[in-house]
Amino acid sequence: QTGNEPARVAAMRRVLALPEAARTLIDEGALSLTAAAELAATEDEEIVARALTLIDEGYSPDSAARHAQAEITRRRVLEDAHARLAKVGVPEIDPPTYGYSFGAKSK
Questions:
Q1: Is the pLDDT of residue 76 over 50?
Q2: Using one digit for the tens of pLDDT, what is the confidence trace for 21-37?
Q3: Phi, psi at residue 72, to the nearest 5°?
Q4: Predicted confidence band at 43 (pLDDT cuts at 50, 70, 90)?
Q5: How many Å apart are CA 67 and CA 73, to the nearest integer?
Q6: Interatomic CA distance for residues 62 and 35, integer angstroms
Q7: In terms of pTM, does the model score above 0.70?
Q8: DSSP letters along the chain, please?
Q9: What is the average per-residue pLDDT within 72-91?
Q10: Cα 46 to Cα 5, 52, 58, distances in angstroms
Q11: Are 37 and 43 spatial neighbours (Cβ–Cβ below 8 Å)?
Q12: Per-residue pLDDT for 50 more than 50?
């Protein structure tokens, strides 16, 4: 017996299953065990990887997790919308460009 509650043991197992980058951030003190456990509970490898990158860039763990979640979710929603529109034959158009492009002889 370890003397720890099963939920705590499960959380630590999830932390140990995080990528090496997470363990490095923990060792460096940039990521606490509590924040790592919360990140591990995400169970989405892409979000975890992005959050770890953001933490390494200086984001706080909470902010990195929220930002990564929003960024990945936004990208997935856009990709899904593009795929659904393409499936029904709606053409994709380029977004508008704002401002003017003047030629070399413009005054």
A1: yes
A2: 888 989 988 888 888 98
A3: -70, -40
A4: confident
A5: 10
A6: 7
A7: no
A8: --SS-HHHHHHHHHHHTS-HHHHHHHHHTSS-HHHHHHHHTT--HHHHHHHHHHHHTT--HHHHHHHHHHHHHHHHHHHHHHHHHHHTTPPP-PPP--S----TT--
A9: 94
A10: 29, 10, 19
A11: no
A12: yes
Does the structure show a pLDDT above 60 at 107?
no
Q: Which two tokens stand for residue 98?
A: 């704002």
Q: Please give the single-letter amino acid code of residue 89.
A: G
Which residues have a Cβ under 8 Å from the Cβ of 11 and sit 6 or more positions away? Answer: 37, 40, 41
CA dist 65 and 63 (Å) reads 5
